[in-house]
Amino acid sequence: QVQLVESGGGLVQAGGSLRLSCVASGRTGSTFHMGWFRRTPGKEREFVARISWSGKFTDYADSVKGRFFISRDNVKNTVYLQMNSLNPEDTAVYYCAAEPKEYPSGSLYEERTYDYWGQGTQVTVTS
After folding, report:
1. CA angle at 122 for the pair 118 and 125, rounded to the nearest 5°
2. Contact 51/58 with Cβ under 8 angstroms?
3. What is the rounded distance in angstroms from the CA atom of residue 76 to the CA atom of residue 70?
4. Which segments in the chain show pLDDT lower than 70?
C-alpha cells in the first residue's frame, strides 16, 4: 500500500502562484508514475500533469502547459506541482496519484489507471 498526502493548496489571486506537494509513504517503490488531477464541482476528475520515475518524462494538459510544472524528489518521496499564472478556471481540488507499474495497461492520462490517490487539496483562484 501507498499513502499519498497533498499539501500546499490555498487561496490566491489571479496571476499568482502556488506549489503543491505530495508526499508518499508506505511502499514508495510503487510510485513509478506520478500524476496530478483536479476536479471542479459537477465535473469529472481531469488530468493535469504526470511524471515518470526518473523525472525525464513529463506531460501536461493543454490547459496548463507552459504554466504548471511537475517534478519529483525520489529521496524525499515527494512530487511537486508548481502552478504559475493561475486563473479562476484553475480553481479545483487537486489530487495526487501513483501508479506502480512501469507499463500499465491503461492510459496514464486517465484516472482509472492509477492505483493510489491522495485526499486532495483545495486551490481557489480569485479574480
Report:
1. 145
2. yes
3. 15
4. none
